[in-house]
Structures are given as structure tokens and as C-alpha cells.
Inverse folding.
């Protein structure tokens, strides 16, 4: 029994064998992704906006300026689509037809609500900051009253979700393996370069370990 | 005079100074991005699907399985939103409020049509393959009649577009510069690992130069 029922909305239609409906598969993709793409409908038109997110259990947290159209849409209670994509490689088959990408993606549907309580907003901003860089909340200056007031925070309950994953080498047609064409995978990795100090940095301050050794592998858990 | 008029649809609302409406800024983002996120409305709900794209002048090219819902939506002639996001770094300000990301993103609106002519489909698939890996079309086995028939290809005319870009160090509040908190930028780079040969690769075939030296910088031009 999967965590999420496969319905018209979230069922992986193309290549169903790549589809997954379990939190244990879907949530690590959400947690590893630094950003997501939020889809909403306004005046009948589709909008797709990249933004920072964080997950807390079965909820997604978003923040933005108070006047942000995206934040208003997320907080409106209408169904929102949120997509997370991790690109793992180019799959170069002998045929262009079987050429593909290795990836892990998740598509989530849910409805949001605005956070209005200051303590609840602060707790959500901590989770967002920690999603970006685990360890940062303890170091950085937290939002003051004015900043908190000008920041909209929304929480969306994940109602339906699916993941789609492709891994491994190309899958060519049997007769194409004899062709004199190189085939294989070109893996993609997010590389984090050595941190660049702010030009206005006070003397004697060094980048913290969680920045120097920054990594997104093993982020979060599938709780 | 910008290439695209800033309207309700494409105007960059949050931090307008980061907004751009010129093809010379927008098109290189589209070309460098390996994939995009396609947004459409079906039965009143928003959907956001990651997919491979390519640009040809003021058109975007997409392909997929004939039965693909996304392809039907793109080909339907309804307005589609396509978003391209390049993440360039984490911006760690002293305050969580001013912490941000460095990025280059583009949001495009347009309407598509299906390609039905085989020669036109083939030309579009060449552009898609070359977007993925410049040089691959000449090497790989092109689609045969059966593959071409089972592949849907659509072309979308870019009607409206904008880009949003953030670069550089954090911008903290004046009084925060004195805080004993490290601040700076952690740059992100897509790294392409050494190619992995397909396990079924025939003897004597080596990965071509365009794979070994793969890079997405300087992809395309802003024509």
C-alpha cells in the first residue's frame, strides 16, 4: 500500500515503472532540492515560479514578501502544484530516441494557509533557513519584529504526491548495440565552490564548517 | 525599449530592479538551462512538469510521447508558462532576512502548436538533441519512421517573457555589518563527471570530445 493513492492528478503516466508513491522515496527528493517550482492558476493562466521551500512532516513551508502574488496564491487555500527536480545526468543512447536524462523528480499537490502567529512564523523561518544551510539559524541574526511583519509565511499540506526516477545506463534497441556509436552516461553533480567572504567582512571571521563542508546529500529524513 | 513589454503577466513584481525584458538577457538563460518546468492548467488545476526543451529563434521546442498530457497541453494552443532556473549560489547574509540565492531565471508565456510534418519534426528533434549535447545529432542514430511517428513534437511561440537575476554578495542592513557573523556567498556549479561507458559498449569506442569536454557555458546566442 503506497502512502499516496495514484489518481488522475498524480499518477505517473509516461513510463509508469518510473513512478513512486511512497513518502520514503518522495520526501528525500524534496529535502535534497534546494529550490522548487510553484505552479498556480491566476485569471485562468498558469504561472510557474522558482522559490525556496522546506518540508516539515507532511507540510511544505514557503516565504516571501507580503505583497507577493505567489505567496497570496499559496495562502489562498486553492490547490497548488509544487515540483522538485534533481538532475543526475545525461543519458546518451546510440539512438536519439532512447537518449534521456537521469533524474529524480517529485510533483506535489496541496493547499496552503497563511501563518499569522509570530511564534509559528518564526519556527517556520527557522526550518526554511535550516533547509538552505543546516546550522545557519544558530549563527545568523534572526528576523526582528519589523522583518517578521513584512514577511509572508505559508504552510501547505501535501495531499497528493508522486516521484519519477530514472537511473542507470541507456536502454538501446537490441540491434543498435552493434552500431559504432559511443553510448553512456554523463553524470551531473552540484558542486559548491570554496566560500567567498563578503567584501565587508570583519577581520578574524572565517566561514563556518557547515558552509565549508556544505552538502545536500542525506538532507532530512522521510518522516 | 525592451523586447517584451512588462505587463501584469510577466512583470517582475518583487524587487523590480532584478527584472529584465530583453532577449539578450532572457535567451541565454533558456539556452544554458538543460531543462525547464512547464506549467499548464487542466481541469482548473495547475501542473508543473520538468522537461527537456530547446530554443529556435522566438520559439521553444518540446517533445514527448504521443499520449503525454503535457504534450497535448503544449500543442493545444492554450497559454503555457515555461520557467528556466539557473542556481548560482547561496547568499548568506548576517541576517536571515537578507539571506538569499544568486540565480538567473526566466519565465516565458506562449502558445504552442503540434508539428505534424515529418521533416519539420525531424528538424525540431535535431535542435533538441543539439541542445542536450552539441555535436550529438551527427553521431547518434536518428529517429526511424516508427520512432518519429510515436514522438509528439510541439513548437511554442514566445509571446511574453521576463528574466530575474541576482548576483553578488549579501546586502545586509548597515548596523549588521558590525555583528560577529560570517557572511558571504557559496557558489554553485554544475559539474559534469568523467563519462561512464555503457556496459554494452563495443570495444574501441571512446567518448567523443563534446562529451568529455561538456559545458553549457556560452550555449546558443540571443538571436
Amino acid at each position: 500500500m503506497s502512502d499516496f493513492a495514484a489518481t488522475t492528478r498524480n499518477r505517473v503516466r509516461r513510463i509508469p515503472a518510473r513512478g513512486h508513491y511512497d513518502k520514503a522515496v518522495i520526501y528525500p527528493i524534496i529535502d535534497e532540492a534546494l529550490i522548487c517550482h510553484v505552479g498556480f492558476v491566476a485569471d485562468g493562466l498558469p504561472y510557474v515560479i522558482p522559490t525556496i521551500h522546506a518540508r516539515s512532516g507532511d507540510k511544505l513551508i514557503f516565504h516571501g514578501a507580503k505583497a507577493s502574488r505567489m505567496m497570496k496564491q499559496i495562502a489562498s487555500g486553492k490547490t497548488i502544484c509544487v515540483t522538485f527536480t534533481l538532475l543526475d545526468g545525461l543519458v546518451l543512447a546510440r539512438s536519439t530516441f532512447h537518449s534521456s536524462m537521469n533524474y529524480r523528480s517529485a510533483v506535489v499537490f496541496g493547499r496552503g494557509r497563511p501563518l499569522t502567529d509570530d511564534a509559528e512564523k518564526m519556527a517556520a523561518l527557522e526550518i526554511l533557513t535550516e533547509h538552505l544551510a543546516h546550522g545557519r539559524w544558530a549563527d545568523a541574526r534572526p528576523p526582528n519584529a519589523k522583518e517578521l511583519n513584512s514577511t509572508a509565511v505559508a504552510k501547505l499540506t501535501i495531499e497528493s504526491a508522486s516521484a519519477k526516477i530514472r537511473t542507470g545506463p541507456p536502454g538501446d534497441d537490441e540491434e543498435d548495440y552493434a552500431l559504432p556509436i559511443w553510448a553512456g552516461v554523463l553524470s551531473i553533480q552540484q558542486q559548491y565552490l570554496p566560500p567567498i567572504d563578503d567584501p565587508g567582512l570583519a577581520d578574524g571571521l572565517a566561514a563556518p564548517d557547515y558552509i565549508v563542508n556544505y552538502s545536500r546529500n542525506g538532507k532530512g529524513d522521510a518522516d
Summary: The beta strands of chain B are 19-20, 35-42, 45-52, 54-56, 59-65, 79-92, 100-114, 151-166, 184-192, 196-197.
